[in-house]
């Protein structure tokens, strides 16, 4: 019975991943976030890897259970797990095929919202990278913490319980500081966010070393969870380093006009509607987008002359 608990947790994480993937795709299409769309293609490839790891982990957890009920469960679940791997792999291939047309469509969205100012577009690209990384951080932080729940449910270790109780709320607070800091260009919040990321790196390194030292012991609490935990820890370390790098780049770009450009892009829907009617691919549409005034040249709405 204890061995079945990790399986339920891993299946719950996968279900959460599918929901996160669907919501993130909807958000990427709604906001025309080209970086988020590209990262979700990679995220789907990670889901393929996760389903494969899940299959072998499931197989290892069930070794030694020979009662007829469990044998029947294993026999019935294997075809479903293979079907799951095939389905996720197929979706990933389709998304890879759609990546190029989505890239072209969203590229024109940059002109639609921000015009042809190269500096503002570069600042916005860093901003989109950081926003995407923060969303991925949220998913992997939560999933990693939930995966640690298997240790509490199975071994009832006080140390694991305390780490979960501390890391879950701290992870949410750190990510919230990241969103608030970059969206409001708030330097104190961003600095606190950077400190939290550094602490997160130190914590993950500690967890990797601690789990490795427990390997081979008779009372090894990670024997059934180590592959999943290593997977999440490796991905999290990479994401945190990337988030820290892009966070610092965005921090250095505060008060350089990006926030004002975002505000202006919301206040000029008439240009977007007319360009959409003419088509992004037409010559007239391109001329209109390229000749569009930049945010610093746009006057208040009451003084704007509508074509």
TrEMBL record:
* Spans through the membrane: 7-28, 34-56, 127-152, 164-183, 189-206, 227-248
Please provide, in alphabetical order, the Gene Ontology terms of the cellular component aspect for this entry: Golgi apparatus
User: Coiled coil where?
Assistant: none
Keywords recorded for this protein, A-Z: Membrane, Transmembrane, Transmembrane helix
Q: Which domain of life is it from?
A: Eukaryota
Transmembrane: present as a keyword of the record?
Answer: yes
According to UniProt, the name of this protein is: Uncharacterized protein
